[in-house]
Amino acid sequence: MQKETIFFKKNFLIYGFGKSGYASYKFLCKKNDCKIIDDNKKNIPSKYSHKTINHKQLKKNNFDYIIISPGIDVNKCSLSRYLKKNSSKVITELDIFYLSYPNIKKITITGTNGKSTTSKLLYDVLKEHRKDVRLTGNIGSPTLLETNLNNNTLFIIEASSYQLEYSKFFKSEYSLILNLSPDHLERHGNFENYIKVKFKLIKTQSKNSYAFIENKNYLLNNLIKKNKVNSKIFRVNYKKYQKYNKMITNDYFMNVSNFRNLSFIFAISKNLKLSLKKIINVANKFKQLNFRQQIIYRSKKLIIINDSKSTTLSSTLPLLESFKNIYWILGGIAKKGDQLKLKKENFKKIKAFIYGKDKIFFSKILSNKIKYKISKNLNNSLLQVFKDLRKKEEQKKILLFSPSAASFDQFKNFEDRGKYFNKIIQKYLKK
């Protein structure tokens, strides 16, 4: 499939040279003049030094487009004034992809929690149907690095609020907006702004497009009522699909939040002409993604869950509601505006072990609700957990590592945090 040649002999500034910036450069550099700038010069390999410019050289260039990487906050970055002055030129990797391949069908999945799981699940289902499907965005490769495309190619794009925020042209034939709870408020300012960024997926859709949202997402429903929406809206009620529970043998979907994600696959099945039998088969074979509610150890007395991906209390909530006798390890850098909306009957089922930068923040949230101990790091928290575990009676326990916080105080990212937990947990299991 030939891409449209809308970008030819143009001048581009690529701001941020992570995965997205690199993909944009590789896609455009052969037919356009691309310059690179990054606040962290170490992100730019030496072989691209001839394409790198500094802040002073910006004035000497007249760029047609400025491609901004998802991690850059226009209001807080070093080029803030320049970007605001040239806001009409700011676009994203998703914009380039859409304008280059407007006829390729796109299924874009966003939400606060469960994006990666739902994206991978839908990808597996479409593979089961022998579709030419690509898994891109946050979970896969950048959209612009995919090759050998044709008119039947389907793109599943996992999109964060960061990727959607500054997009101008991107449209998706199918949009799935999963659960929404306060997240990334340090960037978006408040929950309403965060919701509006997600709503862009629906707002920009054309006729003959489809949007799937949770039926009880009141804020999103209000935006739909107040704005002109061209796409057909489907409100997904997971209870409608609980009739399939008897057919699902994978206990991963016994967790309500995971079943809610699966319900979106059921909901979109008619539009994508998917077989119920094949959806069930895929669900039963589905393996948890690393560090996402992942069961890493199971015995008669103990289940250990590595949920390092959890960066908010709301993402941990379904697990706290699903189990008894929970030893919950949490901590790191708390998210602005985060709250624990847990029913009182669950308080006695949990004992918490808090570590990290914002341990005081979390201790205040849990105070007079859940018993907790504080330690300086993850290793010390585990030490306390296993001391406590060895004292207790022979009831089955759940060791839940679900930090409910960002990892950057002690780790590079959630993957680094998850790998570290897996490594040290082995030491304690051998004792």
Describe this structure in words.
The protein has 431 residues and is α/β, with parallel strands linked by helices. It has three domains: 81 residues, NAD(P)-binding Rossmann-like Domain (Rossmann fold); 191 residues, Mur-like, catalytic domain (UDP-N-acetylmuramoyl-L-alanine:D-glutamate ligase, 3-Layer(aba) Sandwich); 137 residues, Alpha-Beta Complex (Protein-Tyrosine Phosphatase, Chain A), CATH 3.90.190.20. Helix content is 33%, strand content 18%. A six-stranded parallel sheet has the order 6-7-5-8-9-10, with helices on both faces. Helix 7 crosses helix 8 and helix 13 packs parallel to helix 14. The protein is globular, with a radius of gyration of 23 Å. The chain starts with 10 loop residues before the first strand and ends with a helix. The model has no long low-confidence stretch (mean pLDDT 94).
Number of helical segments with 4 or more residues: 14
Low-confidence region ranges: none
Number of strands: 16
Overall CATH class of the largest domain: Alpha Beta
Q: Output the CATH homologous superfamily of the largest domain.
A: Mur-like, catalytic domain
State the share of residues found in helices, binned by percent: 25-40%
Task: Note the beta-strand portion.
Answer: 15-25%
The SS-based structural class is: alpha/beta
Q: Identify the overall geometry.
A: globular
CATH topology of the largest domain: UDP-N-acetylmuramoyl-L-alanine:D-glutamate ligase
CATH architecture group name of the largest domain: 3-Layer(aba) Sandwich
Q: From the alpha-carbon coordinates, what is the Rg to the nearest angstrom?
A: 23 Å
Q: Give the terminus-to-terminus CA distance.
A: 58 Å
Overall mean confidence score, pLDDT:
94
What can be said about the biggest beta sheet?
Answer: 6 strands, parallel
Which strand order do you get reading across the main beta sheet?
A: 6-7-5-8-9-10
Total discrete domains: 3
Helix and strand succession? EHEEHEHEHEEHEHHEHEHHEEHEEHEHEH
